[in-house]
Amino acid sequence: MVTSSIPMGYEILKTVLLYTDPNLRFKIAQRIPEVRITENAVPLRINSLSLQEFKTAVNSTSYKLGVYRHYHTEDTPISIKKQNREGGVSYDLDQYGFEVPNSSTPILNGDVSTRTENAAIIRRDTEIRERHLLSSLRFFEQVLAKKFNQLESVGKTVEEFLAVPRNNESHWFYVRSSKEDLQMKINAYRTNLLPFHYRRNKMSPPYAYFIQLAITQGNATTYQRYEYNHKLYEAAKKLNETLFGNRPVIIVNQLENMYKCDIWRIPVGFKISANSVFTPFGGSKSTNSVTANSIYVDWRTVNPISSILDPSRTLRNVSVPHVEANYQHSFVKNAQQLSICTYKNKINQLVRAFETMGNQRIHIDLMDFQTPSANEYVQLMQGWLATERRVGSMITLGLRTDQIGRKILELVRTRNERTVSRDRCVIVPLINGRKLIVSYSPLPEKINLSTFLLTAKIIDGENSRKVD
């Protein structure tokens, strides 16, 4: 008996797409044009999104663009083979094979730039660079000759050569390298000199250019190559328009790795609306919006990121490295939690910065490899408490050991009067009837260098009886 299949209903299709991996949805939209409009209309849910100029990572899958050089013969230089395997070079190449500086590329409509106004344009086709490459080539050729010609001719081993006083430190250092490593360096310098040879003799390089898209998921990478008839930055723009264009809602849990001196080639109207991961922010179909829970940023990218944020939404967490910065920036100031990575020598600076941090929750990780002292942790808590905080405010700090946690609580007890002690907890009376609860507990798993979490929270005196 033959039964005909029943087409999937529109509402069912939308539900299925909503819970489908975003990378699979990209494939569906490209391969099945009939469902593309529906697929674009359904909120796209992404756990982590990373944007770089020529690389976009969605969850565990990355899409990297580069220029691939295909030699007409089998004699491809090892350095270029390696670059091709890694996705190609991340810059355009001219007719002789010279790098076209990315700092000279135009900013297209919709792009977001972290490039500084006076960004240096570093050219790779100058006479100065050619002389440097020639000098370096001759140096390594001399090192190779010294190691394998002069030493062998006098019957000395490398160990014997290294044992005597040396006049040329650089030669001595590189003589320890293997013959293969030295030869690889020599070959790489020779390859880098070839564009000068092609230009001088008005020759075309012995290879063809392609734009290559490397799609990596786990340890598997697939490659797609296209005719090199447009610039790499234009291809990056097209890639992100294909992935994210014409989508009214994109839900992102973590937006991360926004690099300085970079340009994000994103679609026109691409906006980030901070919200709960499961509560998409609607908008007109002509505007892209992203719902993000957490953003991990370098301070130098704060202003560019803010240009694609919807200020009416509140981020759950903003995580930053601590340098001198404006903690009053709207999306930083309004984040439910501000997470800061810092070092021991920055503690005094961070304590002063607490005066401008009004976030309800602040988390600190001290990233020194040596364990910070209990006194340094208490100094951070006292600096945080020196600014008036409302009930419910808390600061958390990552701890390395149970021992440092015990020492912190002991310092809190000795420096305050009328404290109440419980297991891994000290309650400190504050003014206006409020109390500070300082406690620590083990983390489910190691985070950064921390295995315990110290918490200091301001509560109403009335609620202190409820604390276990």
Automatic annotation (TrEMBL):
UniProt cross-references to Pfam families, sorted A to Z = DUF3557 (PF12078)
In terms of domain of life, where is this protein from? Eukaryota
What is this protein's record name?
Uncharacterized protein
